């Protein structure tokens, strides 16, 4: 891999670019000075459609001048901006730098809008109409792609309106979740449970915890196998917000409901990730968004 990061490629790309630009001028000079063999009437002898003859006239001056200007412009551009290999250009411009500057400019422009909300608690923001209007737009732009425009989620994407929270639903925890993201992992558990029949029995026991339709005999046989799951979900199956382990007793099924869905979860496990939003949103925006999300499943504070 070091061959692809050596200075050779810098010189190769820079040289190839420069030669290509200079070659355009050489081509223009050759085309303007080379005389083609023509007849006395300045035709080349090529005829189309019976009477359409090719003439050997020089290129129009305006076209030649425009071509030269284009070449000069490209050379000037290469001096000012990065174009020749890893040469950064006199101006030191980078797309990253421009993006950073534009983001900072935008942050400064919106700062006064968020200033009034900085000292408010997320719970209080849920009762402020302006904050909620802003929070809704933030949600639509950054969260709705996964959780839906109504925030009710879909399979494998949590419903944010029902009060069932994998990592905790208090305002500060929601803010931490939005800021840092979450990674939820359930490993495949079939090997720890036993045979395929043991897995099926365990699935019925898990279903029975929430009062879902299940085979009571299989559930009784699968109860002892639940020990393999208790480390995360607890012996009572009510989950653990410190680990993001779901409550298995409330009848809410993030990854699908029913015998086959539970068996699939035990056999294959799951990996769910919510990306951190602090790369896209500043602290003030996350603060308002936290209040909006908290308000989806709670009464406004005022």
UniProtKB/TrEMBL annotation:
Keywords: Cell inner membrane, Cell membrane, Electron transport, Heme, Hydrogen ion transport, Ion transport, Iron, Membrane, Metal-binding, Oxidoreductase, Repeat, Respiratory chain, Transmembrane, Transmembrane helix, Transport. Residues 130-210, 217-297 form the Cytochrome c domain. Pathway: Energy metabolism; oxidative phosphorylation. InterPro entries: CcoP_N, CcoP_N_sf, Cyt_c-like_dom, Cyt_c-like_dom_sf, Cyt_c_oxidase_cbb3_su3, Cytochrome_c_Oxidase_Subunit. Its main location: membrane. Its cofactor is heme c. Binds 2 heme C groups per subunit. C-type cytochrome. Part of the cbb3-type cytochrome c oxidase complex. Belongs to the CcoP / FixP family. Component of the cbb3-type cytochrome c oxidase. This is Cbb3-type cytochrome c oxidase subunit. It comes from Hydrogenophaga palleronii.
């Amino acid at each position: 891999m070091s061959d692809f990061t050596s200075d050779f490629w810098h010189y190769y790309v820079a040289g190839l670019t420069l030669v290509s630009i200079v070659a355009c001028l050489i081509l223009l000079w050759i085309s303007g000075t080379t005389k083609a063999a023509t007849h006395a009437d300045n035709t080349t002898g090529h005829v189309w459609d019976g009477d359409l003859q090719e003439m050997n006239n020089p290129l129009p001056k305006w076209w030649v001048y425009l071509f030269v200007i284009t070449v000069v412009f490209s050379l000037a551009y290469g001096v000012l901006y990065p174009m020749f290999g890893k040469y950064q250009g006199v101006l030191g411009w980078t797309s990253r730098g421009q993006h950073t500057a534009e983001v900072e400019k935008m942050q400064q422009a919106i700062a006064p809008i968020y200033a009034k909300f900085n000292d408010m608690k997320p719970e209080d923001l849920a009762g402020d109409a302006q904050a909620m209007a802003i929070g809704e737009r933030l949600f639509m732009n950054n969260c709705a792609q996964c959780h839906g425009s109504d925030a009710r989620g879909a399979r494998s994407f949590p419903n944010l309106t029902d009060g069932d929270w994998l990592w905790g639903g208090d305002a500060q925890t929601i803010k931490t979740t939005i800021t840092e993201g979450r990674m939820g992992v359930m490993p495949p558990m079939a090997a720890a449970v036993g045979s395929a029949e043991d897995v099926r029995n365990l699935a019925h026991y898990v279903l029975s915890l929430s009062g879902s339709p299940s085979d009571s005999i299989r559930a009784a046989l699968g109860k002892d196998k639940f020990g393999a799951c208790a480390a995360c979900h607890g012996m009572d199956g009510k989950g653990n917000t410190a680990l993001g382990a779901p409550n298995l007793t409330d009848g809410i099924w993030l990854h699908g409901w029913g015998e086959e869905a539970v068996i699939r979860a035990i056999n294959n496990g799951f990996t769910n990730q919510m990306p951190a939003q602090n790369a896209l949103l500043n602290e003030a925006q996350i603060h308002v968004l936290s209040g909006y999300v908290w308000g989806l499943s709670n009464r406004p504070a005022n």
